[in-house]
Amino acid sequence: MTTTTTTADTDIRAVLAERERAMRARDAESLGALFTDDLVSFSLAPPLSSQGRDVEGLRAWLATFDGPIGFDITDAVVEAADDIAFVHSINRLSATPKGSDSPFTLWFRSTLGLRRVGDRWLIAHDHGSTPFYMDPSTGFRAAIDLTP
Known about the structure:
By secondary structure, the protein is of the alpha+beta class.
């Protein structure tokens, strides 16, 4: 591993740690600061895709939960070269929807594409997904009961 790769790995893992911190703190501004202006996002919630940094959308989404939000990025693998990097991980989101007494925990897959902008790594592509049961008798439902 070269010094550049080591530095990129360290810097990118700092971005992941900041993402965890900002999610737990409901800090939409800090979350938004981790993204490029031209972010492409395939998030868990509709729509199928969105483009651009949307701090107000993040703030509105975070407000759909009562109480604490848990967010962990696990098993992150970082591949970086020059000004482009990819990260894949298994993430855990736990929260209680507003107006509900029932918290949930969801493990999901995450793939990030990052781009070095100046001296910072920023997330340019954010893709979160859950597998689904491919058996028609299950109604092709999302497999939200899976854990690592």
